[in-house]
Design a protein that fits this description.
Elements lengths: L5 E3 L2 H5 L4 H13 L2 E2 H8 L3 H13 L3 E3 L11 E4 L5 E3 L8 H28 L5 H6 L11 H38 L3 H9 L17
Parallel strand pairs: 1-5
Antiparallel strand pairs: 2-4, 3-4
Helix pairs in contact: 2-4, 3-4, 7-8
């Protein structure tokens, strides 16, 4: 069974994610694993001071933390996501008050906007990825007649399925890194570089499940 995502239950923590730049920074940091405010500011096309402020807010609410081992010279702070597992939230924890409902709506809208921009960027840039990746990428929509309980069960099964794939990829990447390190120690730099790359990229997987009436 894959690791369960950390569940957000505090309204203040959820509201910290309503700002679109914080969502973007968290996504960029997840892909980079470790980065400074300067690195992230360049990618987000924002001022370093503004990015630093929002990084501190994300850290204040437990989403990210300092990667102290990276900041060897002490001139700039390095950051990483604070948990190996992802975060999740559920309507049932917040929809009993107008403030909670508003926060849920705000966060969900911003997440959707960020995901849409990510996919549109891929579509604009897909010619640069090559056929191996463009043929592997997919976009699908399914319609199924379910009860609310069945929809919850489906969501849980899909989450567990994706977590198993994440753990499989992490294990394979760790093995690749170990093999590359062994090759480097043996003085075989060429093989180490090839083994370490292994054609692995960050992949976004967007899944939605909601009721609608045509």
């Amino acid at each position: 069974m894959g690791r369960e995502p950390e569940r957000i239950t505090e309204l203040a923590q959820l509201k910290a994610f309503t700002h679109p730049l914080r969502i973007e920074l968290y996504r960029l940091l997840t892909a980079a694993r470790t980065a400074t405010a300067s690195h992230l500011a360049e990618q987000a096309d924002e001022a370093v001071s503004l990015v630093s402020y929002h990084l501190r807010k994300l850290a204040e609410h437990g989403f990210i933390e300092e990667a102290a081992e990276q900041g060897r010279d002490g001139r700039e702070r390095w950051w990483r996501v604070s948990a190996e597992r992802s975060f999740t939230f559920r309507s049932a924890d917040f929809d009993d008050t107008p403030e909670g409902t508003a926060a849920l709506t705000g966060v969900t809208r911003e997440l959707l906007a960020t995901r849409s921009r990510t996919y549109l960027n891929y579509l604009d840039q897909q010619s640069g990825w090559g056929r191996e990746w463009t043929r592997a990428a997919f976009s699908s929509e399914y319609t199924v007649r379910l009860t609310a309980g069945e929809l919850r069960e489906l969501a849980e099964e899909m989450g567990a399925f994706v977590r198993r794939w994440r753990e499989r990829a992490e294990a394979a990447e760790a093995a690749e890194a170990a093999e590359a390190a062994e090759a480097a120690e043996a003085g075989d730099a060429g093989d180490a570089g090839e083994t370490g790359a292994a054609g692995r990229e960050t992949v976004a997987l967007h899944l939605y499940g909601f009721p609608f009436r045509p």
